[in-house]
């Protein structure tokens, strides 16, 4: 938690310099509180860096494709010249991401994660999949992660501006 706190301080400090006046001075504190609430409910003082990274990626303002690629990079394992994501790595990713809606009482059950993992690996004979298969599955908007593209679309509409006058 201390290491993540330090990284968040540096991250938000850098963003404050790039975008003066757009970042709350307590952003690092608020973000850390959220991460602790999601990933350290028992107060051990320990959060897996991969879990924290997944949450930060999911909550970032980046495109969905960029988020999906980043998830793959953080959870995939190297296998020769390619990276692959295994069933257990996918389960870990989905469990980590499920903590985000769970914090507001909207999480799904463990069986939901299992069903999603099964659907991703449906028809796959190997124990792991390549990035393209992973991205293809995510683009199909599996129910367990439906909140992610929905939140992305909502945030994207905030940037839309119509040059119309109302009476």
UniProtKB/TrEMBL annotation:
<dbReference type="GO" id="GO:0099536">
    <property type="term" value="P:synaptic signaling"/>
</dbReference>
<dbReference type="GO" id="GO:0045202">
    <property type="term" value="C:synapse"/>
</dbReference>
<dbReference type="InterPro" id="IPR050774">
    <property type="entry name" value="KCMF1/Dystrophin"/>
</dbReference>
<dbReference type="Pfam" id="PF09069">
    <property type="entry name" value="EF-hand_3"/>
</dbReference>
<dbReference type="InterPro" id="IPR015154">
    <property type="entry name" value="EF-hand_dom_typ2"/>
</dbReference>
<dbReference type="InterPro" id="IPR011992">
    <property type="entry name" value="EF-hand-dom_pair"/>
</dbReference>
<feature type="domain" description="EF-hand">
    <location>
        <begin position="65"/>
        <end position="154"/>
    </location>
</feature>
<dbReference type="GO" id="GO:0005886">
    <property type="term" value="C:plasma membrane"/>
</dbReference>
<protein>
    <submittedName>
        <fullName>DYTN protein</fullName>
    </submittedName>
</protein>
């Amino acid at each position: 938690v201390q290491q993540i706190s330090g990284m968040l301080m540096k991250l938000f400090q850098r963003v404050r310099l790039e975008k003066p006046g757009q970042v709350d001075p307590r952003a690092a504190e608020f973000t850390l509180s959220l991460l602790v609430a999601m990933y350290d409910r028992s107060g051990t003082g320990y959060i897996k860096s991969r879990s924290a990274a997944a949450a930060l990626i999911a909550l970032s303002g980046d495109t969905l494709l960029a988020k999906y690629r980043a998830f793959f990079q953080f959870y995939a394992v190297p296998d020769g010249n390619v990276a692959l994501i295994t069933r257990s790595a996918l389960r870990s990713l989905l469990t980590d991401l499920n903590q985000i809606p769970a914090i507001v009482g909207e999480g799904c059950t463990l069986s939901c994660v299992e069903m999603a993992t099964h659907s991703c690996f449906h028809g796959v004979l190997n124990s792991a999949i390549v990035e393209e298969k992973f991205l293809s599955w995510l683009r199909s908007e599996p129910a367990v992660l439906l909140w992610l593209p929905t939140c992305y679309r909502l945030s994207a509409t905030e940037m839309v501006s119509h040059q119309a006058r109302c009476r």
